[in-house]
Amino acid sequence: MRQAEIHRKTNETEVAVVLNLDGIGLYDTHTGVGFFDHMLDQLARHAMIDLTVKADGDTHIDDHHTVEDCGIALGQALTQALGDKRGIRRYGHFNLAMDDAQVACALDLSGRPFLVWNLPFPTQKIGRFDTELVREFFQALATHGGITLHVDLIHGVNSHHIAEAAFKAVARALRMAVEHDPRLGDSLPSTKGTL
């Protein structure tokens, strides 16, 4: 069973994540940050993973700690659910169009975290949400999920569309990478013998 449950508690946040990689895209997200919940819903639906995220954070200060800690917990859950990564495709990529925005994502579940981020936003806010937190989430996800993650804006003028296209592009690439490769069987997708 490729499932995981992570509970993370700090002086700033308390986050609980339940993840099923072989789900059907069900989601139940309550972080106290409305736009971020919407993005996590997109991630679950388009990655075809079942995802529950409950967070209680110091949003009276700002949303930074909550968003970042959700990325940390989700990355840890992904690592736990993947186990030794036998039989997975490992790599994923997707170009996603959403209205004016097009975002490209390529990723490798390599165990070597690295983020390449070329996603400028034309505004600092989407409603009350700080657009810089999109990068913070994916940095935490990549670091704690052991993901080499490249996200590039091809074009776009609307910050909401750019952010949503990024979450959906990562989701579709992740869906591809975590899938079982029938040709691999129980082998590792690496010549090193470990990932």
Description:
This protein is about 35% helix and about 30% strand. The protein contains four helices and ten strands; from the N terminus they run βββαβαβββββαβα. It has helices at about 35-45, 65-80, 130-145, 160-180, and strands spanning about 5-10, 15-20, 25-30, 50-55, 90-100, 100-110, 115-120, 125, 130, 150-155. A four-stranded mixed sheet has the order 1-2-4-3, covered by helices on one side. The protein has a four-stranded mixed sheet with strand order 5-6-10-7, with helices on one face. The model has no long low-confidence stretch (mean pLDDT about 95).
Distance between the termini: 19 Å
Question: How do the strands of the widest beta sheet line up side by side?
Answer: 1-2-4-3
Poorly predicted spans = none
Computed CA radius of gyration, to the nearest angstrom: 16 Å
Q: What's the helical proportion of residues?
A: 25-40%
Largest sheet: 4 strands, mixed
- What is the mean pLDDT? 97
The helix count comes to: 4
Shape: globular
Strand proportion, as a percent range, falls in: 25-35%
